Amino acid sequence: MTDGTSGVRRAITERRTALGIELGSTRIKAVLIGPDHRPIASGGHSWENQYVDGLWTYSLDAVWDGLRRSYAALRQDVQDRHGVEVTGVGALGVSAMMHGYLALDGAGELLVPFRTWRNTNTGVAAERLGAVFGCNIPHRWSVAHLYQALLDGEEHTGRIAQLTTLAGYVHWRLTGEKVLGVGDASGMFPIDTATGDYDATMLARFDELAAPLGAPARLVDLLPAVRTAGRPAGRLTEDGARLLDPAGTLAHGTVLCPPEGDAGTGMVATNSVAPRTGNVSAGTSIFAMVVLEEPLEAVHPELDMVTTPAGDLVAMVHCNNGASELDSWASLFTEFTTALQLGVDKATVFETLVRSALDGESDCGGLVAYNFLSGEPIVDLDEGRPLLVRTPGSRLTLANFMRSQLFASLATLRIGMDILQRQEQVGIDRMFAHGGLFRTRGVAQRFLAAAVDAPVSVGDIATEGGAWGIALLASLVQDSGGRTLAEFLDEVFASAALETLDPDPADVAGFDGFVTRFRAALPVEAAAVRHT
Fold it and tell me: Which residues form the Carbohydrate kinase FGGY N-terminal domain (predicted)?
């Protein structure tokens, strides 16, 4: 964080700041940055999804409660660090987990509970749309959710007046503007990178499919308008300011950048928006984003075609299951230390467990782990069951066990990256990593380098994650100076400290062996789903 100098205090009181808020899978975070683009203060609130009637969801009450708590925590952090009150900001941006399904009626009321990216009940729709469009349509994309609801004859579909993502919904409530950043929009419906808008041919094809099923309007009339990075996307209304800050101290009128998804803000937070750059974000889910020089040769169901916040084509490897199972094991070991009355907190237990993996055998001693708490389309699973599988000759030690858990968090990602790197021959000059999995220095970063067989860098600021990324996008709107997003980020990162690890040959060989066993034992995972 920037020190509480008089210059920082002036920046706050003069509103030469940018506020970024991101609704992640387990945490809502707010970050305030100064004119130098470095964080001044932050606030956060933890939350969890719910599994209701067979679907993963968050309530909208939890959305607004979490946003208010996060902003209140940020206000208090500013007061504690800098001794001043936040009465307004220069620019604001909202980001959230991509994809999913938020269907609203003409009065702006939610028609069915928010269906998150984690749901995999859209397999029939995704397959049919992919065949018609000639491109991969992932299970979690908004258009797949809509088409599945139409196929299933859900009553609410005839009353839909607006479709959006979580970031788009919050932005609309804050500004009244039904817009979406192109990166997040590319997770709703395919984007034509030549026009920077939804693909017109595919829109027409969808309408032909949907009309006989009772679609209420043309799809383009339901979707938010698309905006690229650097363009303003409305201003904070008085009602919007009160939604964030019921205390009434936050002024309205602030300009907002286009709302973006967490994948796009992750790219910004790691300066991975130029061709041949990529990043990996690891939290509840794990995904890689690689900016392409040209379109891929073939369609692959394991690879999504999305865009950067500037509209450039990106290949995305998205895995539903990331570090949640690792966190569950950390909770179990924390319970054990509590039973022994050792007085060790969970953060210490987690770091100790993760670091122990460095002492494990390169191939995890023959152990195979699956971190599947939910379905995983890349390996054709509609549901998941966390498993540890070992043979009588495998070596069950703490180090091997933890190494297998970390490898499991990266294994499905590796399957998708193999297609991108080996089949499509996509080159990567720089790969950056961020997210909770990489907080323990030099462990998951080292294993990711082995998984993708490429150097992996972690930055000193990227730990602030997507909330910092959307704050940067807000700052770009405030003062672009005619710069492109890539040019702007090169300036921001000019003095950033990066730690880069090259792949260790022994780790690469060990990960190869683990993934071979991981693939071979997938029928065991499928059997566990069928029988439990």
Answer: 18-241
**CA–CA distances in Å: residue 157 to residues 119, 127, 190, 212, 514:** 18, 20, 21, 13, 45
Identify the H or E element spanning 44: strand 39-46
Task: Write out the DSSP string of 486-526.
Answer: HHHHHHHTTT--EEEEPPPHHHHHHHHHHHHHHHHTHHHHH
Q: Could you tell me if 172 and 178 are in contact, meaning their C-beta atoms sit under 8 angstroms apart?
A: yes
Count Cα neighbours of 442 within 13 Å in the Cβ-side half-sphere.
6
Report residue 408 as tokens: 């499991």
* pLDDT of 463: 54
> What local confidence, expressed as pLDDT, does residue 479 receive?
81
Residue 9: per-residue pLDDT: 95
């980020």: which residue's tokens?
Answer: 489
d(CA 40, CA 90) in angstroms, rounded, equals: 14
Q: Which residues contact 239 (CB under 8 A, 6 or more apart)?
A: none
Radius of gyration for the chain, computed over Cα atoms and rounded to the nearest angstrom: 22
- The segments of the chain whose pLDDT lies below 50 read 1-3
Q: Which H or E run includes 459?
A: strand 456-459
- Looking at residue 461, its pLDDT comes to 60
- The string over 5-15, giving b where at least 16 C-beta atoms fall within 10 Å of a residue's C-beta and e elsewhere, is eeebbebbeeb
Give the phi and the psi of residue 503 in degrees, each rounded to 5: -65, 135
- Residue 24 confidence (pLDDT): 92
User: Using N-to-C axis directions, what is the helix angle for 166-175 and 60-82, rounded to 10°?
Assistant: 70
Which residues fall within 8 angstroms of residue 98, CB to CB, at 6 or more apart?
117, 140, 165, 184, 187, 261, 262, 263, 264
Percent of the chain residues past pLDDT 90, beyond the cut: 86
Q: Are 185 and 143 in contact (CB under 8 A)?
A: no
The Cα 331–Cα 489 span in angstroms is 38
pLDDT value at position 3? 47
Answer yes or no: are the C-beta atoms of 445 and 317 closer than 8 Å: no
Alpha-helical (H) ranges within 83-141 are: 123-133
Cα–Cα distance between 481 and 380 in angstroms, integer?
47
C-alpha 299/C-alpha 295 separation (Å) is 10
What is the reported pLDDT for 120? Answer: 85
Torsion region of 218: left, alpha or beta (phi above 0 gives left; psi -120 to 50 gives alpha):
beta
Q: Specify the DSSP element, H or E, that contains 351.
A: helix 346-356
Tell me how far apart the terminal alpha carbons of the chain are, to the nearest angstrom. Answer: 48
How confident is the model at residue 291, as a pLDDT?
95
